[in-house]
Amino acid sequence: MKEGVYVDYEYLKSKRLLLVDDQQELLDMLISILKEEGFNSIVTAKTVKDALALADSFQPELAILDVMLPDGNGFSLMEQLKHKGEYPILFLTARGEDEDKLKGFGLGADDYVVKPFLPKELTFRIMAILRRSYKGENPLVKLQNSEIDFDRAEVIKNGEHITLTAKEHDILAVLYRNAGRIVTIDALCEAAWGDNPFGYENSLMAHIRRIREKIELNPSHPVSLITVKGLGYKLIIRGK
Amino acid sequence: MRSVPKLIRRYISILLLTCVLLIILNFVLLAILAVNQAPNAYPWKTSEEVAAALQLIGDGEYALPESIALELKNSNVWAIYIDNETKQVIWKTDNLPKTIPMSYTISDIASLTRGYIDGYPTFTGKAANGLVVLGYPKDSFWKHMWPSWDYYTIANLPKTLLTVFAFNTALIFLIYIVANSKLLKSIKPIVNGIQSLPTGEPVYVKEKGLLSELAININKTSEILQSQNNQLRRKESARANWIAGVSHDIRTPLSMVMGYASQLKEDTHLTDEQRQKAKVIVKQSERMKNLINDLNLASKLEYNMQPINAKSENMVAIVRQVIVDFINMDIDDTHPIEWETDDFLTICPVKADKALIKRAVSNLIQNCINHNEKGCKIYVSVAVDKDKCTVTVADDGVGVTDEQIEKLNNTPHYMVCDENTTEQRHGLGLLIVKQILAVHGGTTVIELSPYGGFSVKLTLPIQES
Questions:
Q1: Would A187 be classed as within a structural domain?
Q2: Does the distance separating the beta carbons of B282 and A118 come in below 8 Å?
Q3: Would you list which residues of chain A are within 8 Å, Cβ to Cβ, of chain B?
Q4: What is the pTM of this model?
Q5: Which residues contact B266 (CB under 8 A, 6 or more apart)?
Q6: Looking at the structure, do residues B450 and B315 belong to the same domain, yes or no?
Q7: Mode of pairing for the β-strands spanning B337-339 and B378-385
Q8: What's the N-to-C CA distance of chain B in angstroms?
Q9: Distances (CA, A) of B388 to B95, B378, B391
């Protein structure tokens, strides 16, 4: 684990990946991209049959599936894989229709990437899934002036442990999942109060103020939880 | 069906007019005939004249002036003069038929005045000492022998006439209504059929009754329309499917181009120049990717094959999400986006397909980026004006001429244009924006930006709460 980095990247990159696609060239390219990114434990399958066999012998920790396979489709393959073990699944397919995406997500896919894709985008999404799925194994989140322990729902500032309320925890969790990126006011409201498209903006501001009192040295001049005027908020994490 | 009562009104007025005209015509004809009949009193007059003209020329001898005698002779009319005292014929014309008696009783005279002597219609005129009787040729006149009516018949004649007229009119109307209601009954399904033809729904009219031939033709027309529609739909689906298939098949090969080029771009073993080339390949393959996505969506929207999942959405939230996605992606900060929406406007309810509206707004922002490679500021705002919600995406970049704006607003895209043209049209991105706004009942207006570049205004109706 590198000094100051909030996530154990090496650990995540040691995860076992299963790639399923019927085209050898694409598999080769995926391996090349992922190896360059630091993933070392990768196996590939070109058919549903091979994939199911590998799922037993290799015990993958993340599967990347194409939808259209010579002896079946990725959706049903996913369902079969889910019976074998609890691990995240990402679809990588040329089927870009919204219905296909919704079907994939509806069946429990963790992400859905439409070809063609930029290697960076794919690796970003893989890392995001791994981070989410294996978060129990990552330690405290380090901010400029404090640390967040999501498992215990508390903030450690100057050696003092401050409890987070449920809403504060939910809001911080969304911000943390998108660390370094802006999260819209609406997405934060949805995370805290569910899918109600209207309202709650003022309540959100109140919660943000209270979170700042807990995580910032000077809540009037925040350095970790930044406002992007009119749009949303951004959580800055040390070392990122 | 508004036309049918109108039709009935028109027919009734025509019918009324017909009746009025008939009455007028009858009166005129009657008048003309009556005028022609008026001289039919002339045999009586002639008799009076003859009686007046008959002169005693001495000792029981009478004579007619030559002119009158000639006239009588020419008309083949005979005349006798009956003496008041003796009831004997004391003068006669030469052409008197032998069958005419030479003496008369009073009852004979009453009878000849009313009618005929031996079939000759007779007319009388009063002379000095007797009666002049003219006998016209047989069958030249018809005499009414019992010219008497009940007094009230004559007195009530106007009333009687009116009643007769009223009965006539009523009968005509009755016949008209019965005949027409039958006709209307058979017309009604046909009118209904014709009126539902333009809706494009299949039409079937029962093929019986007076107008069965029309019904058959309407049914045939409907069949033809249906089969044409089906063919058109099949063709459109085939075209949309074709585009979807091609774009699907391109995706995997393009993935490999993009993937390897991206790796080469980052490969430190290559020279800067080589990496620059790889960068161009990546950029152009990204453009191809966008083009494929656009082409597919545009064809689906054009051929109504894109499912629209319209729900209650907050326009402010949708636009905010699009901007944040761009800001999160724009690593080198060459195209900063300014949020120009009023701080107090946090909710703008619209009924919309969130994914499509996001696509429209991000197409506009992407346009600003594509057309201003050296960078520009992008200004996005949401505003509410009465019952309309307006999203504006503007930039301070290179912009376009007024002429180009005119074209962008009004010229159809090649995808939706049947003219064969090689002229450069605007990209698919803007077409999709227009299509998306159209399916949401909104409008797209392209104009010069107040910030010096290009600006597009999207307007959507606000959803009633």
A1: yes
A2: yes
A3: 23, 25-26, 29-30, 32-33, 36, 94-99, 114-120, 178, 181-187, 197-199, 201, 228-232
A4: 0.64
A5: B275
A6: yes
A7: parallel
A8: 36
A9: 112, 23, 10
Interface predicted TM-score (ipTM) of this complex, two decimals: 0.76
CB B194 within 8 A of CB B220: no
End-to-end CA distance of chain A: 14
Closest in A120, A181, A186 to B320, CB measured:
A186
Instruction: Give the residue on B whose Cα is nearest the Cα of A115.
Output: B251
Same domain, A13 and A37: yes
Neighbours of B165 (CB within 10 A): 13
> Is the CB of B259 less than 8 angstroms away from the CB of A119?
yes
Q: How many C-beta atoms surround the C-beta of residue A208 within 10 A?
A: 21
Q: Which of B430, B339, B222, B330 is nearest to A232 (CA)?
A: B339
Q: Count CA atoms closer than 13 A to B23's CA, side-chain side.
A: 12
Query: Domain limits at B281?
Result: 228-300
Q: Is residue A2 part of a domain?
A: no
Minimum Cα–Cα distance from A199: chain B residue: B347
Separation between Cα atoms, residue A132 and residue A78, nearest integer Å: 19
pLDDT per 10-residue tile (average), chain B, 465 residues? 72 84 89 71 84 81 85 89 88 88 89 88 88 90 80 86 87 84 80 85 82 87 91 87 87 92 91 93 88 86 84 91 87 85 88 93 90 90 92 90 82 64 66 92 91 92 84
- Asked if the Cβ–Cβ distance from A232 to B328 is below 8 Å, we say no
Write out chain B residues lying below 8 Å of A99, CB-based: 307
One domain for residues A45 and A145: no
A88, A103, A136 - which closes a domain: A136
**Closest CA relative to residue A232, chosen from B463, B341, B367, B393:** B341
Q: Mutation test of the interface with chain A: which of B246, B249, B250, B252, choosing the one with the most A Cβ atoms within 10 A?
A: B252
Alpha-carbon span A100 to A84, nearest angstrom? 24
Of B255, B288, B319, which to mutate for an interface test with A (greatest number of A Cβ within 10 Å)? B255
Structure tokens at A105: 């997500």
What is the edge-to-edge ordering of all strands in the sheet holding A225-228? A182-184, A232-235, A225-228
Query: CA A37, CA A31: separation in Å to the nearest integer?
Result: 10
Looking at the fold, whether A20 and A127 belong to one and the same domain comes out as yes
Same domain, A132 and A189: no
Residue B291 structure tokens: 């083009």
Mutate to test the interface with B, among A69, A115, A188 (most CBs of B within 10 A): A115
Which residue shows structure tokens 């699907």? B248
Does one domain contain both A108 and A16? yes
Return d(Cα B368, Cα B323) in angstroms, integer: 13
- The residues facing B339 across adjacent strands are B380
Q: State the CATH number of the domain containing residue A32.
A: 3.40.50.2300
The residue in chain A having the minimum alpha-carbon distance to the alpha carbon of residue B248 is: A94
Tell me which of B87, B105, B135 is where a domain ends.
B135
In 3D, which of B114, B112, B108, B125 has the Cα closest to residue B42? B125
